[in-house]
Each structure stands twice: as C-alpha cells, then as structure tokens.
Amino acid sequence: MMIYKNYISVLYIDLSSKKISVKHRQDLCEYLGGVGVASKLLEENIKPQLHPLDENQPIIFAIGAASSIFPVITKTVAMFYSPLTMELGESYAGGRMAMTLLFAGYDAVVITGKSKKPTYLTIKSNNIAFKDARALWGLCTDETGRIIRERESGEGKRSILRIGPAGENLSSFANVCVDTYRHFGRLGLGALFGSKNLKAIVTIGDQSIQIENFKEYFKVYKEIYKKVTETKLMKKYHDLGTSVNVLPMNKIGSFPTRNLTENHFEYAENISGEKFAQKNLIRKMACTSCPVGCIHIGQFRREFDEGYEFESVNVAYDYELIFALGSYLGINTTDAILELIEKVEQMGFDAISTGVVLGWATESYKKGLITNDHTIIPLKYGHVKNYIKAVEYMAANTNEFYKILSKGSYKASQKYGGMDFAVQFAGNETPGYHTGYGSIVGHTVGARHSHLCNAGYSIDQSMEEFDKEKLIEMIFYEERERCILNSLIICLFARKVYDKNTILLALNTIGYNLTENDLTTIADKIYKTKLKIKKMLKFDLKNIKLPKRIFQTPSANGKIDENLAYELINLYNKKLEAYLNTDL
Amino acid sequence: MAKIIKADGMNKCIGCYSCMLSCSCINYKHHSLEKSAIKIKTSGGLSGKFTSTVCVACKDERACLESCPSKALEKRSGGGVILNEEVCIGCKKCVSACIVGAISFDEESKKPIICKHCGICTKFCPHACLRMEEVDDDL
Ligand code: SF4
Ligand code: SF4
Ligand code: SF4
Q1: What CATH code is carried by the domain that includes residue B44?
Q2: Which candidate in A182, A288, A338, A345 is best for mutational testing of the B interface (most B CBs within 10 A)?
Q3: Which stretch is the leader sequence (chain B) (predicted)?
Q4: Using 50, 70 and 90 to split pLDDT, how confident is the model at B47?
C-alpha cells in the first residue's frame, strides 16, 4: 500500500503509440514501494532476449512508501536494463522528482516504446502530454533545462529530467540530469532515454494529500526533524559535504590516483573539501523535504576571450567527483576540477565512469596501445584542457575510438587491450574507495556494482580483525537492509537517522500496519526479485574477472590477494544460491 | 506584543521546502505545496537564488481587506489579516489585490490561502531564513 491508499498507482506510457494508462495495483503493495515496486515492474516488463537499448525495453521510475512527507526521504529510483553492465540497472536521484510525482498522484511510471521524433513528456495529475523536442536534440543539459523551464508551468513544484548529447548518442554511461544538480548517474539510464528519442520529462506535482492521522503524524515528523537537524548524525553532510572525505581517504591510502597506479595523491591538500570550501563554495542546496542541504555548489571563473573577458560558472561537487575528475586524472586544482565537472555535466555523462574511462585511456596512451590517431589530442594526467576536449569527442562520437570509449572501460579495453588496468567491476567503473576486501567484494557482489549497494568500503574501515565469514555476513546484511531504505526511499546519508524503529514509527503513522518481521520479509522479497532479474539476464558471479590493477596497488588494508578476493566472491555466491533456494 | 513573520534571510535558503510542508500540514492538515501560505521559488532555475513569497503584514491600509466584498478579511493586530472562511465567498478579489502576490487560491476548498503569521514555518526552517519579529499591537 502507498500513503493512505491500498494500491500502487502505476502510470504506463508507450512512446510508440502515444498511449497512456493508469493502473491501481493492489498486488504490488507487498513490495512496499520504491525499489521493491520498481524491481517487480522491471521483472514484468524487461525483455531479456533483446538488447538493452531495444525500443521495447522499459524504463521504470518509482517513488517510495513515505516519499517526501518525512525529512530526508527524497529519492526516486530508476530501474532498467543497463547497457553498461548488460544486466540489472538501478539508479537513484534526489532533487524534486519524488515530491512532484507524489503530488501528481503516481507511485511508479513505466515507459516503453520509442517516439518517431525527439519528444519530451509532461506528467501532471490527469494530464500526460507528448511534446515536440526536435529543436532540443543536440543541446546540452543546461540549455535544455532553461528552454523547458520557460515553456512549462508549475514553477517551484516541478522537476525537470533531461539528457545531454551523451544520452542521445547512446553512451553506455550517459546519465539523466534531474533539476540541474542531481542525477540518475550510474549505469546508463541516459542511453535508454536516447534510444527512445526521449529528451526530457517534466513532472508537475499539483495535488494535495489529506493527512489522516494528523496528531500522530506530526509528532513523529517533529521527532525525526529534530534528530536530523539537532544531532550530529548528519552534520558533516551539510558542513563540508562528502568532500570532507578527501583528506582521510587519502591519508589511509584509499584515494584512487592516476588510474589507480597510486592509492594517494600528493596534491590532495589542494583539492580537499576544505580547499573547495575556502576557494569555490558559494552556496548549499537541498532536495525537497531535506533540511540538511548537502548539495555544495562551487564557482569558478572562466576566461572566454582575450581582453579580460570572464564569466562565472557554478557547478555542484562532491567526493566522488573530486576523485573521478581530480585525483584519478592527476588534476590538482579545484578550479580545474570544476571546469571538467561542468563539461561532463553539460554533455550528460556519469562523472565517475567518465573519470575512470579517461584514466584507462590515459594509461593506454602512455603505453602506446592507442595513439594520436585515436585520441586526436594527447591524453596526459593533469592536462585538463585536453580532457575537456576528450569529453566532447566522446559525447559527439567524433571517431570510432571515442565512440567505443563512450561504451565504457570494459568494452574499450576489449578492443584496444589494457584490460588489467581498466578498473571496473562487472563492467561498472570503480568508485573512489580502494579500502580493501570489503570494497572489492562489495562492488562485485552488489546488485548494481556500486559502493552504495552494501558499503563494503565502510566495513573495511570499521572491521577490527579481518574475518572472511564475518565480512560476507556483513555485506549480505547491508545489501538486504538497504532494500528497505530504498523502498521508502530514504537518502542513504540519513541511514543512521532511520533505524528500524524509526522506519516503523514513520510508516505506521501514515496508514501502514507493519512489524519488524514484515520489514524483513519485504527485504527478502525485494532482494530476491533483484537476484532473479540478474539471473534472467545471465549474470553469474562465477564469470567475474577483476582487473589486475586492484591487486597491484595496495589498499588501505595493504595489498589485496587475488586468490582470496575470488574466494570471498565465491563464498558470497554460495550464500546467494542457498538464499535463493529458501522459500519466501 | 504581536508578531509577524519576516523572510529576510532568504540568501541562506537551501530550498528544502520544510516551511511549505509544515505550513500546509499544521494549518490545512494536508501534505501539500499548494496549501502553503509561504511559497518558495527559484529566480532563474535552480542555479538562481531562492525567493519566498509570503504576506508582508501590511499595517493601516490592507489592500486585500479593502477588496473583499463580503467582509471575510479582518485586520490582524500587528499587521496582515485574518480570514473568516465561513464568510468568504471565494471570489478571488483578494488574490489580485495583494500586489506582493502573497495570496494564492486553493481550488480544492475554493478559499484563499493567506498567511496568519502563526510562525510554524519559522520553526521548521533549518537555515534561519525565516524569523518572527515583535511589533506593536496596532489595533
Ligand atoms: S495579504 Fe497582501 S495585501 Fe494583505 S496584508 Fe498581506 S501583504 Fe498586505
Ligand atoms: S507564518 Fe504560519 S501561516 Fe504564515 S506562512 Fe508561516 S506557517 Fe504559514
Ligand atoms: S525552510 Fe527555510 S531553507 Fe527551507 S525552503 Fe523554507 S525558507 Fe528555505
């Protein structure tokens, strides 16, 4: 059930026939919401035998079981068939989307088919429109947003999703930009938009929802609000933001540098969260209904012409971007990182994958696997101007090399060699935590191969004595727990605020009637659905080949032994097989 | 002493909408952006500044009140007005009379949404953009 209703309201949009329908699905209530509902809808609609970018593949969006009406419950989930990993695609974005879908009256949206001409969609309560986007095709994310903003109504209560040239040209790690500063970043949702000729979506939340249990609800709301704003639990996310991690990660030797040839960056001080705050930070922002405000906006000055012609440019930054578009490429000033971030944003690429892909290309160039004939311009660590050009070439598919590069480091290294130093896990480029077995196993076994699946990197930092079984247990536990957080959909930064009790308290004041046992049952259902989809797409942990580089460059916990890493993955796989065979 | 809301710290606004959600929650018992008497918007997309629109608590002469044909608006001590919903006929005259744009119209209840300077929103603003100011009772 969803907030005060006993059904999940699913909006189906077919871009080919321009048909829409809304179904009230009671049967989906057992999946709670968010990732649960989205997984089920993906399972129902995916076509395993067809390519991920076939027009018949679905894009699923879902909001959660308590979206927007409690603090920091801000995310929308997207699920799809990932063109990057060729298996389960799952990605989250904040911004305003969840609130606008809630107030438009839709818990989930399923988009299939392909429009004949570039289109954008507007989604309101009782009104879905297909609009001409031909003139927008080819435009960067910024311009697209501006034009739509000026054309459409709903100022202040709408959300605008759009892709850039990267998505149009089907890059496997193209993202979808949400409200300028948030994204469905990883695993290539942008390419699915591109493959459907879908340039943008505007969601407008113009309805209200009557509160049924005002007293109880407000009491719990206040409690959670207090916990978020008056305790230390979330302070760091507002203060310096996640970039506070640059120095500590660097210090312990977990900060991937120059294509992970090193685990720390000698210029880390120059690109630390503190440095960004001193030199570039101009404001902080929040997703709607989040009083924390972790979005950090940095400003840099760009000279666009001779004769002292400058403009100021504002972009959002955080830890992952500083690692991927900073240390990983040997870029050592805050201004240069911001300039590269801006290009990546405008073209509509996932920032992490872009950095890691360019890291691979730089090393391949150095080693002579590729030459100027491929790269057009030389790629060298620290040379930000050339990286900016390379990002443009990738987005535009300027030549065969850049086209293949835009399919990810795995595909590029299949063709040009250098697989050993293409640092990806099951096809997804590495996040910025080289902490030890926890991170490596976590990324590999995580349902979407992200550091957010199970936070293996944080287990590495908290586990006092290395213990194989314990590590596997902890990763498994976290992976399953997060199915609950992701079905409400709580921002993972607030995971310490929302313990099980708080979750139950919140849900049970808005019409649910759940116990802790119920939550466990639901978590199992969701995790198993995801695992089933992976199986359906022929994903098998037994076939994973990890890049040698992660075993060559020491982690925070020393050198990682290759055999042991595979042994751990194998252990996890066995655990999953047994788990899948237990009854629901 | 009477109090009025002052939204003079908007340069600090992070756009969390907690103020709007708390206003509609307490005053109208709805989860809603529509039913909030304070409205947060951006000027020029999200890269622009956040602005707020809310009653500025006019004293002496209140345009909204003057425009009301059914005497549904009453002077509020300290500034602004109090809406008497029973008497309001939903004509929307006050909406256009207020040049601040502080009055919106709730199409669901067919009544205007007008700030009553209760201060709830200021308690839920995490960044001290909104505050209550003490003013002289003027009635
Ligand atoms: S609603 Fe507008 S006209 Fe009426 S008192 Fe407030 S600011 Fe003045
Ligand atoms: S002072 Fe009260 S009525 Fe006015 S905007 Fe704030 S919460 Fe709403
Ligand atoms: S509560 Fe404060 S920070 Fe949040 S939107 Fe309202 S004025 Fe801005």
Answers
A1: 3.30.70.20
A2: A288
A3: none
A4: low
Ligand 1 atom 4: the closest Cα is on which residue?
Answer: B64
Q: Which of B14, B30, B47 sits opposite A286 (nearest CB)?
A: B14
Q: Say how many Å lie between the CA of residue A149 and the centre of ligand 1.
A: 29
Q: Which residue's CA lies nearest to atom 1 of ligand 3?
A: B125
Burial of A26 (0-12, 13-18, 19+ CB in 10 A): exposed
Q: What confidence tens digit (pLDDT) does each residue in A137-181 have?
A: 999 999 999 999 999 999 889 999 999 999 999 999 999 999 999
d(CA B59, CA A121): 46
Ligand at minimal distance from the CA of B5 is 2
Reported as a pLDDT band with limits 50, 70 and 90, residue A1 is: very low
- Classify residue B51: in a domain, yes or no: yes
- Strand stretches in A1-126, DSSP E: 8-14, 19-25, 59-62, 76-81, 88-93, 108-112, 119-124
Can you give the residue range of the structural domain that contains B123? Answer: 2-133
For residue B23 and ligand 3, the question of a CB distance below 6 A is answered with no
- Residue B108 at interface with chain A, using a CB cutoff of 8 Å: yes
Q: Answer whether residue A267 shows pLDDT above 90.
A: yes
Give the residue on B whose Cα is nearest the Cα of A94.
B16
Confirm whether B53 is domain-assigned.
Answer: yes
Strand A127-132 with B131-135, pairing: unpaired
In a domain, B30, yes or no: yes
Beta strand segments in A101-230, E: 108-112, 119-124, 127-132, 158-162, 176-178, 182-184, 198-204, 209-210
Q: How far is A64 from chain B (nearest CA, A)?
A: 15
The per-residue pLDDT for range B120-138, each reduced to its tens digit, is: 999 999 999 999 999 998 8
- Residues in CB range of A60: below 8 A, 6 or more apart: A38, A41, A42, A45, A78, A79, A80, A108, A109, A110, A111
Percent residues over pLDDT 70 in chain A: 99
Q: Residues of chain A with pLDDT > 90: what percent?
A: 96
Let me know if residue B113 belongs to a domain.
yes
Prediction pTM value: 0.97
Q: Given an 8 Å threshold on Cβ–Cβ distance, is B35 in contact with A208?
A: yes
Q: What is the mean pLDDT of residues A414-420?
A: 98
Residue A86 has pLDDT above 80, yes or no: yes
Q: How confident is the model over A438-449, as a mean pLDDT?
A: 97
